[in-house]
Amino acid sequence: MRITAVTCVKNEGPFLLEWIAYNRLIGVTDFLFYSNDCSDGTDDLLDALAARGLVQHLPNPAEGRNYQMEALKHARQQPIVADADWVWVADVDEFLNIHTGDHTIPDLIAACGNPQAISLSFQFFANDGVEAFEDAPVIAQFTRSHNPDICCADGSIEVKTLVRRDFPLQYYGAHRPFFRKALAKDKRPVWTDGGGRRVPFRFLMAANRDHIRKLPAKGARSLATLNHYALRSLDSYLVKNDRGDVNRENRAFDDTYWRERNDPAYEDLSIQRHLPAMEAALADLKSDPEIAALHEAAVRLHGARRDELLAQPSYQAMRDQLRAAPALPPQEEALLRDLGLWTKEAAQ
Fold it and tell me: CA 118 from chain center: how many Å?
């Protein structure tokens, strides 16, 4: 079974090898990376991996700002995608955590009944007070998340989707594929969630904006979930914020994204079943002196960029604001305030 992962990256150098090693363990056979505007050596590391036949690396073809959608449109024409049995569109901070069989994608597919698409629900892993960036596996450092069945005040959670070769594809989206709404009923794809259940009709048909990229979470992760490490360390979050923002001077910082994903109410260590094998696979990748040197260079540049940012008053203020932010999502804080139950202790 050929399973191709497609992803877009910018300044993800310190995290590439872990993501590749992990995905190879769970059954991904091929990787297509698109990169743009990298200043931390991400592109150099990917070029070295590509020269060894471990990945395919292309410059992002986007001419405007819609980098991901332009890349996905381009990817569809590449043999590494067109010839794959399954395509997995995901980001480098997203790890598919499979709970069935031998914890690989082929076993997940079998458990879901071999549908034409499987949409996996996010589980957002909190920063949980980790401040310093450390060159260590992300899946070992961050172990707490929101209740898997509810995120903030919402019982529906965003997904990413595995897509089978014969899906009646109109185009790939970042979260799910799309087919033409005029498709005959008997041609509509068989599509399940991460519990092997058929997805709701409104989601299947992308009926409206509320049903395009979210599925009811309860019961949707019995076979697999998608661990999303959107925050990582505070250091790395500052660098990530800078990645998409040319100039932050004289503008207020909105901490909503951080707070919505920094709920540490639930501990989940299940993905660490892969940790010993992944650490061995990482060591194997780093046994190549050039790969190891390029990884170390990306780590150094990541730390150097953090230091440059923290020399700026605006980023010092951002760091202090995030440190002081309540450990509850804004929606839960609002509910407690409405009920007259809000206290300083509730924020911790």
Answer: 16
